[in-house]
Design goal:
Blueprint lengths: L1 H20 L30 E5 L18 E9 H4 L9 H12 L3 E7 L1 E2 L20 E5 L5 E6 L4 H18 L5 E4 L16 H18 L4 E5 L15 H12 L2 E4 L7 H4 L2 H7 L6 E5 L21 H12 L3 E5 L4 H9 L6
Parallel strand pairs: 1-2, 1-11, 2-3, 3-7, 7-8, 8-9, 9-10, 10-11
Antiparallel strand pairs: 4-6, 5-6
Helix pairs in contact: 4-5, 5-6
């Protein structure tokens, strides 16, 4: 009797498995894969909106001079990257003359500055931190970022090192003393880094989460008036939706709690990686802080980091804008000054007046 019951249970289980396997699996990683399609019908010129639009110049700050965006009423200002190395030539001695020059120039044209503070690079040749951090009692100050193949692709400050954090907080405090309320905002670079416990024994994903929150608090304390923002896109040790350790979600929740806005680089609305991380966080969350999204190199042709020039192409600017406005509900957009796309695709779309 027991054997018959056992055989019956096996048959029933087999039938259930067969029935399940014949059904289409609702893959949670695909939940937003078609979201962009409702925005592909968007056209230029873009309707007036309430988004604060900035042009992103990376470290090419000289390019703002006599740039076409200066005469466009739709662009609030320029987002420029300044490295920690530039701003603190020697320990405790700061040089903000580049920032002041850019603030003054933009102000003459009725525009504002949004600072992107750089302490990570994607160049093996460039360490974006002061020399004093590379020696002394800072555990090397930086660590190498590696590609999936193990090659060095850049450097990042040891954000999880307590002494490095203190020096970074001091920089933020000095910047805030000079520019809080003067600039539109300041953002820290992306959370995604090519570092693991295997490449740096001082690093752990849990330490990294704590370190990011520490830096966020220091930034908010230094800039109580200007907008503060962290680009939170991916977190080491986690890959959503499969490996959800609460790292990225916790960063977004913490930002909302302390008043630090959340943003991300690369508006890639057809890529699962972006869709399941930063874009999902923005879409699903209810935030009291401003959200921002950056359209960066390659995004105008649906790629990441591309320098390719595609002569015959669809203009993605209307759908990028519509997706950011409706699906993400951002307050800020940062449009990279990548040619020929900015002149040929972006500017013609921004002919309507700001709402």
């Amino acid at each position: 009797m027991k054997l018959n019951r056992l055989l019956g249970a096996v048959v029933t289980l087999g039938a259930a498995i067969a029935a399940t396997s014949s059904m289409a699996w609702d893959n949670p990683a695909n939940r937003y894969e078609n979201a962009y399609k409702q925005y592909t019908g968007a056209t230029c010129p873009l309707a007036a909106d309430k988004i604060e639009h900035f042009v992103y110049f990376s470290r090419d700050r000289d390019a703002i001079r006599d740039h076409a965006f200066l005469t466009s009423g739709r662009f609030v200002g320029a987002q420029i990257m300044y490295s920690w190395r530039q701003l603190e030539p020697t320990e405790g001695h700061y040089d903000f003359s580049l920032i002041q020059s850019d603030v003054d120039y933009l102000a003459k044209h009725g525009k504002r500055l949004f600072i992107q503070l750089q302490e990570a690079s994607f160049s093996p040749e460039y360490k974006p931190v002061p020399d004093y951090l590379l020696k002394g009692d800072y555990d090397g100050g930086v660590t190498a970022q590696h590609t999936d193949d193990g090659a060095v692709e850049g450097w990042v400050a040891k954000r999880w090192n307590a002494k490095v954090q203190l020096r970074f907080a001091a920089l933020l405090a000095a910047l805030g003393k000079e520019f809080d309320g003067v600039i539109e905002g300041i953002n820290l670079q992306e959370t995604a880094i090519g570092v693991s416990p295997e490449t740096d024994s001082s690093f752990t994903p849990d330490k990294y989460v704590v370190a990011l929150k520490t830096n966020m608090q220091a930034m908010k304390a230094a800039f109580p008036t200007s907008t503060t923002m962290l680009y939170a896109n991916f977190m080491p040790g986690e890959w959503l939706p499969w490996e959800d350790k609460g790292y990225l979600r916790g960063i977004y929740e913490f930002g909302d709690k302390i008043g630090v806005g959340m943003g991300a680089p690369d508006l890639m609305y057809m890529k699962k990686g972006q869709l399941n991380h930063a874009l999902a966080m923005m879409h699903e969350g209810k935030f009291s802080v401003p959200l921002g999204i950056a359209v960066q190199d390659g995004n105008y042709i649906g790629e990441t980091g591309s320098t390719n020039v595609v002569a015959k192409r669809a203009n993605l600017v209307p759908s990028l804008h519509a997706f950011a406005q409706d699906f993400l509900k951002v307050r800020y957009m940062f449009w990279v000054n990548q040619e020929p796309y900015f002149e040929e695709d972006v500017l013609p779309c921004f002919s309507a007046k700001k709402g």
